[in-house]
Amino acid sequence: MATPLTTTLHGSCYCKRNTYTITPGPFEFAPGDPYKDFGPPPYVYYDHCSDCRKLQSSLLLGWIRAPRSWYTHTTHPRSTSETDQEIFKLLVSSSSSPSSPSSSDITGPTRNFCGFCGTHLLFLGSSCRRDGWVEIPLGSLDDGSLEMLEGMGLKPDFHTWWRSAIGWVKRDLVEGRAKGEGKCWRGEVEEGVEGEGLEAVPEGFRE
């Protein structure tokens, strides 16, 4: 099962202290991984999760989900006083008090940011840790890599957490796009936003 990704993708934070690549290679699905039903990785999609919307201060999020073995991250300090930990800052996600972990023994969701410009660079939820994935904010890809996605058939083609989407955003998305594109994930298509090509997909794929 060949991946549609045929070249290395490049991304970075705003200040360029963090760069990363996504390079296609061998992969194997973990037992019971529901993404197996969606064909080979990577998966590129829009996300309407209310938590992610708040955490990223963005009305509509895009993600690329890829095998962890395909992801390589590099830090670029600008002085000897800048550490890798400061540049690629790790926070344990928590609505009460996000914290920087002192131990590598982490089981809950984590997010990595640039400690200097604040760009969100990486998300690891429990299913990512269990099944060997990384989720990367789509907007952190460099422009050239974003442009290449279309030619490889990797534009976002489904929506996660559709039930959590803001009502007028859902209506605009349905009415303003070509029929027959995309899928709705998480719950039934609601009255007033139905359209040809909208498909409800079983729950349980993303936490």
Keywords:
207 residues, alpha+beta, Metal Binding Protein, Guanine Nucleotide Exchange Factor, Chain A, 4-stranded mixed β-sheet, 3-stranded antiparallel β-sheet, disordered C terminus
Please specify the SSE layout and strand pairing.
Layout: E1 9-12, E2 18-22, E3 43-47, H1 50-56, E4 61-67, E5 71-75, H2 84-87, E6 88-92, E7 110-114, E8 120-124, H3 126-131, E9 133-137, H4 143-151, E10 159-160, H5 167-175, E11 184-185, E12 200-201
Structure explained in plain terms:
This is CENP-V/GFA domain-containing protein. The chain is α+β, with helices and mostly antiparallel strands. The protein has a domain at 9-26 and 34-157: Metal Binding Protein, Guanine Nucleotide Exchange Factor, Chain A (Beta Complex), CATH 2.170.150. It is 17% helix and 25% strand. The chain has a 4-stranded mixed sheet with strand order 9-4-3-10. It has a 3-stranded antiparallel sheet with strand order 1-2-5. Strands 6-7-8 form a 3-stranded antiparallel sheet. Strand 7 (110-114) and strand 8 (120-124) form a beta hairpin. The model is unreliable at 177-207 (pLDDT under 50).
